[in-house]
Specification:
Elements: E1 2-3, H1 11-28, H2 30-33, E2 40-48, E3 51-59, H3 66-84, E4 91-99, E5 105-114, E6 117-126, H4 131-136, H5 139-146, H6 157-174, H7 180-190, H8 209-230, H9 237-246, H10 257-268, H11 272-280, H12 289-296, E7 298-301, E8 304-307, H13 314-321
Parallel strand pairs: 3-4, 4-6
Antiparallel strand pairs: 1-5, 2-3, 5-6, 7-8
Helix pairs in contact: 3-5, 3-6, 5-6, 6-7, 6-8, 8-11, 8-13, 9-10
Protein name: Peptidase MA superfamily protein
InterPro entries: Peptidase_M4/M1_CTD_sf
Organism: Acidipila rosea
Length: 323
């Protein structure tokens, strides 16, 4: 199960709630877990390429229209499809639960191989969610990215969340929902959360919020840069991750991390991911982020992120967003 919650301090509590949700699911079954008051309920099937998403909306009647909600789902699904070349599973169920008296997209969770679907996503939104809330939301895209990676053992939960954290803004940029300034500002702002602390024992052994989400994202960023350096900027992490989907790897499957990285590395003709994992799995590796941003030609200006096209890795920076 993958969670796409607000990236804040309460994520420690949410990890505990996730375990409890799995316990409930095992006792009651997904149908009971997702059951909501029938004050409002509607179902539709959204086609995305050759895939279909069964959309079930229940709970309170939302302020936004039904068509706006379906357009929001379609935008997120198409962003992920564009990034991977296809939607990662042939069938998925999205259960949108509308919470009375609340506003905004609140929280999402994704399961693999539930209720007869390869992927099931539960998304909670507030009754008073606005069209602008939907337009600026990242959580549903984050959840759909989760469907593109086989389920990993608990010690590698950081790679599941790290890929979703790293890919989500890039996928939304490539589909026209973010600017490059927004993408890179999010990384500059968020990546320091992924650096190891004084008691860190490596990504496999340190299960804090920062290391799980942003430590995994930092692993992805470094891997993306190294792949592009070794392939003369011909290939990147996007190619590697898409290869996993083409090898029929998705959240409905359970793979060891070694198989995931082997398939991904084979596509780029490198061993970047396997080598990085060996280095980072049990060792607290620090990244010189200030030096890295300088090499990429990224700096903070008075009105946001500035780009230096003469920087050593400026071409890599641009290719990450424009593969």
């Amino acid at each position: 199960m993958r969670d796409g919650n607000d990236l804040s301090a309460n994520c420690v509590l949410q990890h505990c709630l996730k375990a409890f949700a799995l316990f409930l699911a095992s006792l009651l079954g997904m149908g009971h877990l997702l059951a909501q008051p029938a004050a409002y309920r509607t179902t539709d099937v959204l086609k995305v390429g050759s895939s279909s998403i069964n959309v079930v909306i229940s709970g309170a009647k939302p302020d936004v229209s039904y068509d706006m909600l379906l357009a929001y789902v379609g935008d997120a699904a198409r962003a992920v499809s564009h990034y991977y070349g296809t939607f990662p599973v042939d069938r998925a169920q999205l259960q949108i639960v509308v919470v009375p008296g609340r506003a905004g997209v609140l929280q999402g969770t994704t399961w693999g191989d539930r209720d007869g679907f390869p992927a099931v996503v539960l998304l909670r939104i507030g009754e008073h969610t606005s069209q602008d809330d939907l337009r600026t939301d990242w959580k549903l895209t984050h959840e759909f990215v989760h469907t593109a990676l086989p389920s990993l053992p608990d010690d590698q939960h950081w790679l599941e969340e790290g890929i979703a954290t790293y890919v989500e803004p890039i996928a939304r940029y490539q589909s026209g929902f973010l600017t490059k300034q927004q993408v890179w500002w999010g990384m500059v702002d968020g990546m320091p959360n992924g650096e190891p602390g004084n008691t860190d024992l490596g990504l496999d052994n340190t299960h804090t919020w920062g290391r799980t989400y942003w430590g995994g994202a930092l692993f992805c960023l470094v891997a993306d840069i190294q792949i592009r350096q070794q392939t003369k900027n011909a290939l990147g992490l996007q190619d590697a991750l898409a290869a996993i989907v083409r090898a029929h790897g998705s959240i409905k499957d359970e793979w060891p991390i070694e198989r995931v990285l082997l398939v991904a590395d084979k596509r780029t003709g490198t061993t970047v991911l396997e080598d990085l994992y060996k280095s980072w799995r049990a060792t607290p590796v620090k990244v010189d982020l200030i030096g890295l941003w300088s090499q990429l030609g990224i700096s903070n200006g008075p009105k946001g992120v500035l780009f230096d096209d003469s920087a050593h890795l400026a071409d890599v920076r641009d290719s990450i967003l424009h593969p």
